[in-house]
Each structure stands twice: as structure tokens, then as C-alpha cells.
Fold these 3 entries.
Entry 1:
Amino acid sequence: MAAIFFSRRKVMPFNRSPILKVLWIEDNYPNLALVKRIVEIDGYIDFYSANNGTKGLVSAQENKLDLILLDIKLPEINGFQVLKKLKENKETENIPVVAISAHAMEMDIDKAKEAGFEDYCIKPFKMDTLLNILNKYKNKSPKNSRFGKTTNSLVKQF
Ligand code: MN
């Protein structure tokens, strides 16, 4: 048993522990499943998901998150209400939150900025757009500085 254990450890080139803990609060399952696959390919992201705001708030409290991607149109409590609750809680108030909106009409940019969203992203978005958002927050994370700075005009920043 011990021999197998040590041989496995030897082939590991380095510790690939996740460097960015991301929660996606999204009620559209196919969308969520696709995103999950993308972040798994990335390999440096610890991905959490919730299909409504209530579950999302629980997850945000339980996991020490680096980033929350928050769908605006959610059942029961909407994205703005979820954000408000995140900001009211000392444990979650400093987690950057990116608004994910189904279409431009749904998103009042000034209102979102005022509410406390860091960025916003309009669906449907390209894979690169999502990866650039994630890379941007990797760069900001004090845990790691190996990733080069990325810029993408598709990623809107306030
Ligand atoms: Mn939705």
C-alpha cells in the first residue's frame, strides 16, 4: 500500500491545488454544466454552483470564495437581492461579484455598479470571455501571480 502511495506521489510534477474558488449562481442547468466543463479544463479553478439565490448565499458562507458569478434573473430572489445580502454579511461582503445577464436589456449598468457589482457579462458569451474574467480574478488573487495580465474588450469593466 505504502509503495503505491509513494510511487503516485513521485509522478506528480507539482501541487496543482486550485487557486481560484468560484461560485456560479445560475438557474439554467445546461448553461451551468457547460461552464463547469470549461473550468475543469482550466484546472486551476475550484468550482461551486447553486441554482438559486438561497443556496448560493449558503455556499458563499460555507466556502472561502474568491469570486461569485451571479445570474440576474433567478427564481425567488433575484441577483440584485442576492448581492444585497452578500454585501450585508461580514463574511461575504468583500467577495467580488460579477453580474451575468441574459441580455443587455435586462442589465442597467449604472444600477448594477451602484449595487456593488465588480463587472458584468452579457449572455450568451464566448468561452474566451468567461476565461478572461476568470484570469482577471486570478491575477487579482494574492494567492498567485503566475498568470499574465489579460485584456478583452468583451469583458466589460465598470
Ligand atoms: Mn436565470
Entry 2:
Amino acid sequence: MPVITCIDDLKRIYRHRVPRMFYDYAESGSWTEQTFRENTSDFEDIYLRQRVAVDMTGRSTASQMIGQDVSMPVALAPVGLTGMQCADGEIKAARAAEKFGVPFTLSTMSINSIEEVAEATTKPFWFQLYTMTDADYVSRLIERAKAAKCSALVITLDLQILGQRHKDLKNGLSAPPKLTPSTIANLMTKWRWGIGMLGAKRRNFGNIVGHVDGISDAADLGAWTKESFDPTLDWNKIAKIKEQWGGPVILKGILDAEDAKMALNVGADAIIVSNHGGRQLDGALSSIRALPSILEAVGDQIEVHLDSGIRSGQDVLKAVAMGAKGTHIGRAFVYGLGAMGQKGVEEALRVIHTELDISMALCGRRTIEELDRDILLIPENFEGRWQG
Ligand code: GLV
């Protein structure tokens, strides 16, 4: 096994092993990809304060997210088509998360179904819900997540309409892949992926196929999802979903202090400051830049998490020290999964944990509770001053 020292090591192997169309799916932002790029580069504008001669023994990265114990403040974010990055990808990622003691979030647009992941794991996972115009289907999905004992519902709010990612259109993205001459040529170089896929439990969208009338293949499904995301989603509907669910609710896709206040009013347990990994509104602020104003507006009344741009334990440290109660990783675990399956996700988590632990110690802190802005050097104008 190669020596893995950072998330980029996993990304290099991932790129080599996974079919181009799925690599491109994960590695794209919308339109010019400005927000996608700045999600990561903006972390570099924040510096850490090195402190010395502090007793470093007895360190721990353990914390809580929505009252649930986590071995570090990092959850696996919902990523569509994870089971196309690696055979049974959702099951493998969920098992890695369980082993590491961090939450796994299953996407509505997953390959392995809610039931398959529940059967393959022993601890509750979180379920991410997309709201569709078919209210009965959404209601059945919520009941299925309840039956599977999911311990939180993550409602995504920033994808009522899909942002355009150029490469997906050019690649003709589908699950399973459509066999065009260029796809076949590319698949022939990905034998490891192909062998795995031959043995996969499932190669289509497990939460949808068989649960929605008339959906049997990828072509139907593409058309269905385009028509099905609910363009009328509003705060009243969110309140109704919350009521049906009856358990912890996390609202994902908040990037503005006004929306954070709405999330608070609706009684969410947590919000995720997110721009969907730069995949939706290109030209929006990076999540880490949006975080301070949201914390200022609601941070003392609701748990605030962050996703989009986390590629290292130092990024986790910066977000948490700034005031986020937790972070979510998407691409960082997908690279590991595509590179080497469950072991790769475990490696991604190990890398992030090591970086978090060592950086925390070198800042003179031993526990997550001790982290605060005092360890950060944040540029004066980090949030930006915008004309009113
Ligand atoms: C779906 O969540 C996507 O970003 O493609």
C-alpha cells in the first residue's frame, strides 16, 4: 500500500483509478468554478498562532455534533453517486465513518439505498433529503429514513434547481454510465473499478429506482430528477417536513445571515454554512468567508457547521476555532473512496485527524472545547466590506 501523508495523495490515486466522468462529477464547480476554487484558497488567508511551552499531554479531538458524540468534529457529507466512485461506495464510506466514530450522511441521490446502508452498519447514520414535487415520494422517503433509525435529517436547501457543471454535460453523466465509444475507451483503463462494479450490490439510484413509478433506467431518471426537484420549497414546507420527521433537523446550504435567522425561526437543530462545494451559485462567497457573519447573527442560539472547502485537519481547526461546532467533508472522503475503497476513507479520516491533532497542539491547545479565535490570525477585511 502506498504511503498516504495527505488528502492530495489520495486524490492522485483516485484520479488514476476512477472513470473520468465520475472524477469530473466530483471535481467540478458550476460555471467558472470561482466559488469552488475560493472555498479552498480562502482558508489559506487565515493563519495560525504558534504557541510554545504548553503541556501537550492528554490531548483529544473528541467533541459533539447535534448532541451526538464524535471522535472529531468532522462528518461525512452527503455526496450523490458515491456508489459510482467505488462499488458499494455508500456502504464502504458509512462503515469507515462508523469505525472512526464520525457521522455518515447518506444522500437522497445515493446508489446504495437507505435500507442497504442500514443493514451494512450498526450505528445510526444521517439522511440527506432533497425535496421533490412528488410529496408522497418525499413522505415515503422520510418514513424509510425513520424506519432505518437515521439519527438526523439533513435537508438541502440550495438545490431546487441544478447549477450547471460544464463537464457533466459534456461527459453525458449517468449511473450506470452510458456506453459511448469514449466512455468505453476510458473504462478500459479502469479495470480495478470495473471488477469491483461487477460485484456491486447496486448500480443505479437505490432510493429512487423501484420507489417511483415508471423509473427503471438512467435515462428516465435523468429526466425525472430535472423535473422533480421542488422549485416551490419554502420555509413553511421545511416546517412541515420537520414536523413529520420529528427528530433532529440540520439545514444545509445556508450562506447568508438572513437565511440563518429563518433557519433559527423554523426550529432547526443546526445549520450547515455551505455553497454546495461551489457546485450551485458560482460567484457566491466561500463558506469560510461567510461563516463569521452567520456566527455573529445566530451563533449563540443554534449550532453552526461548515462544509465546502475542507481538505485538511488544519481547515477543520480554522473553521472550529472560528466558531463552527462541526465540519463536513465531501470530496476529501470521495478521493479516499475512489482510491482504495473503505480503507481509503479510513485513510482520509486518519490524515485529517492527525493534522487536526498536531496543529491544535502546536497552537497550544489540547481539546476541541479550548479552541477559539485567539489561535487564529484573520485578516481585517476577511469577510469583505460590501456596499449596502
Ligand atoms: C448534487 O448534490 C450535486 O451537487 O451534484
Entry 3:
Amino acid sequence: MDFDGKVALVTGGSRGIGAATAVRLAELGADVAITYRTSPGDVVDRVKGLGRRVVAVRADSGDAEAVAAAVEETVAVLGRLDVLVNNAGEFIVGPVEELGVAEFDRTFDVNVRAAFVAVKAALPHLGDGGRVIGIGSNVAGRAVFPGFSLYAASKAALVGMTKALARELGPRGITVNLVHPGATDTDANPADGAGADVVRGFTAVGRYAEPSEIAAAVAFLASDEARYVTGAQLHVDGGFTA
Ligand code: NDP
């Protein structure tokens, strides 16, 4: 896989799966932009250390204008855009009685609307070979735990958007795919957190994923080798949904 001369934008790229993805794409030769909400973390230094160009943009994915502006800043600074990874996600869970319209709106603004807005902003810049990759969740297809009504619904919404956009953008040579991570050891879901053993028990392999294992799947879908893969859902969940 060779991303030399290509530019990737990863939303929510300062920590966790997004950071691993940004660094992996840079290792493979891409220049990368990330967005973040509070802190850019150490990704800028790590990407620079790989000899690639990098830009970090503060842009809360709940703010549609900020998301669109981040796409424009990526192109302004790095000159082009080839790969969009919609990774930033809001994880609001709890009993349905305790979830309200505010939680619904926040979840869908960050997890669904931002992806839509980013694609719209990216499209004028994505040429033949362009790539759009969403980060869904294993719970989009199998919601085994109580409290996931909003989160699972938002991730399931990405399935429909991915398929429809794949149909629409296929004739332009742009692929659109969705990676469904399973439990992945990040700040949002630490492998030593409460309930982690229960989660592990639902997997076939008996462990959490490392962020790099999700990043590897994203990199494949972003690559030229994956040019005939579109509208697909790739579960990287250790067999959680098997
Ligand atoms: P982390 O909490 O480890 O990292 C989240 C990253 O996204 C950080 O860079 C954070 O920036 C950024 N971010 C969070 N909210 C926003 C926002 N509103 N706008 C912009 N950036 C934001 O999360 P994960 O890596 O675990 O999750 C990444 C994606 O993977 C999410 O979509 C999540 O739903 C999905 N996922 C994760 C799983 C897991 O087990 N970890 C399982 C299935 C799916 P900052 O550092 O500034 O806060």
C-alpha cells in the first residue's frame, strides 16, 4: 500500500482509533490532517517524525460549520484531499428514561450529521480514487448491552448512508465504506475498565482490539488495492457479531 502524494483527513484524530489511523496512513506515505475537540495530542509530532506533513484543526464535530471548515483548511494547507475518515464519535449511553432530546441531538450531530457534512465538503476535492471511510460500531448490528439506544441507532444510521453514498459516488470512482470496530482499547473503552471482562466474553478471540488493528482495516479500505470494495461493512470486532 502506497499513499505517497495523497492527503487524508481523520476526524477525531488526536487519540484512540483516529490517532492510530492518522499515524498508520502517514507511515504508508500520506500527509494527514486531523480534527480534535480539546487537544491535538502528540499526533502532530508523530506524523512529523515520519517525515510527512500534518495539520491539526480544532473542530467539534457537533458544529457543522467547523467540520466543513476543517475540510477546507485541510485542502488549503495540504493542497488536496484523497481520503476522508469520519471517526469522531459521541458515546452517550444510559437507560432510555435518562436519555433526552439533547442527548439524541448531540449523538446524531456528532456521529451522523458530521459525517454527512464532511462528505459534502470533501466532494469538490475528491477525485477518481477518492475514499470515504466511516467508523461505525459492532453494536450497530448486535446491541447486546442495555443503554445503547442512541449510540447504536446513530451507528446503524451510518450503514444506510454508506450504502447510499457508495451508489451515488461509485460512478465518480469514489468508494464509501464503513468499518465496525469491536471493543478497542482506548480512553473511551479501556481494556481494564469496568465490564471489560463481560465484553471480552462476547468476542470469539477473548480480547480487546488494539487501535492499530482498526487502523489497519481503514488503511486497506483507503488504499488503491480496495478500489472494488464499496458500500461494504468491515467488522473488525474479534468475532463479536459472528
Ligand atoms: P477516544 O475517546 O479514544 O478518542 C476520541 C477522539 O475523537 C479524540 O481524538 C477526541 O479528541 C476526538 N473527539 C471526540 N469527540 C469529538 C468531537 N465532538 N469533535 C471532534 N473530535 C472529537 O475514542 P475511540 O478511539 O475509542 O473512538 C473512535 C471512534 O470509534 C468513535 O466513532 C467510536 O464510536 C468508535 N468505536 C470505538 C470503539 C471502542 O471500543 N473504542 C468500539 C466501536 C466503535 P480530543 O482528544 O480533543 O477529545
